[in-house]
Amino acid sequence: MKRQVFTLTIFFLILCISVSAQTGDTLKSEIENILATKRADVGVSILNLKTGEWTSIQGDMPYPMISVFKFHVALTVMHQVDEGKLSLDQQLFIKKQDLLPDTYSPFRDKHPEGNLNITLREAIGWMIKVSDNNLCDFLIRLVGGVKTIDRFINNSHFVIKNDEAGMHENWDAQFLNTTTPDFATDLLRLFYEGKLLSPSATHFLYTTMVATSVGENRIKGQLPRGTVVAHRIGSSFTNAEGLTGSINDIGIIELPDGNRLVLSVFVHNTTEHYKDGEAIIASIAKAVWDYYTK
After folding, report:
1. What are 102-120's pLDDT values in tens digits?
2. Domains in the chain, start-ordered, CATH in brackets?
3. 164 among known catalytic residues
4. Chain segment 150-196, per-residue pLDDT in tens
5. Pairing between strand 63-64 and 91-94?
6. One of 20, 56, 67, 105 is an active-site residue; which one?
7. Contacts with 244 (C-beta within 8 Å, 6 or more apart), sequence order
8. Which of 53, 164, 235, 264 is catalytic?
9. Hey, is 222 helix, strand or coil?
10. Distance between alpha carbon 32 and the CA centroid of its chain, in Å?
11. Is 241 a residue of the active site?
């Protein structure tokens, strides 16, 4: 992103904070009530794209992204597609040694021997729709490494140090990639408004995120059946003491009237059962839905 995008972000944040201070107290109180009894550090950011109303709870605090960063990887890949450096139809040769065994990889499970060609379009689908870690790291290498992603996003509220393999090295390594809920929300806004990618690239990535099949119990968990949500989740390890590092979901929710809400929720260091950690996100999303549809 260029300096112009950063300036737009700052201006928009100032404007929306002013609006939300006047109109978001009720929603904020509802979410604080949800969180009051939860054993977790939770950051929340909500933006109404139609009105600019912004509601934030610890929105300026850094939280581990975990696989949320696959959205940023996909943005960088699609930026290079826009530049003509890559093509969605180009063939990628996935070697067996690219398919690490000790990581979440539905692609590896389906093609354990590797050594086959897939298109870039398919690789992005595996990374976004089912959160494949091996193909995520393949795409990170394809664009030039994590430093390339960092240069493209170019914001102090986004820190990327590790790929998926690096995050699996030890407990602490998974927490080095961070962002703030407010920046995650505003990046989704910039993406949706077409300020980061071309119209065709924006459409492709948005529809791919809508087709996500993992994390169904998070933002979508308590929303009406059939609600369209373009989202990206992140899930960390749970250690022997029952501490889960992160359960995250960021996304764009389509309302019945055509308006859209951007919601980013980061659940950090929770001792809640995993399903209850996911339910924190689902309960917040339901409160947001009810607030804007009733």
Report:
1. 999 999 999 999 999 999 9
2. 3-68+77-85+156-293 (3.40.710.10)
3. yes
4. 999 999 999 999 999 999 999 999 999 999 999 999 999 999 999 99
5. unpaired
6. 67
7. 236, 237, 238, 267, 269, 270, 271, 272, 274, 277
8. 164
9. coil
10. 22
11. no
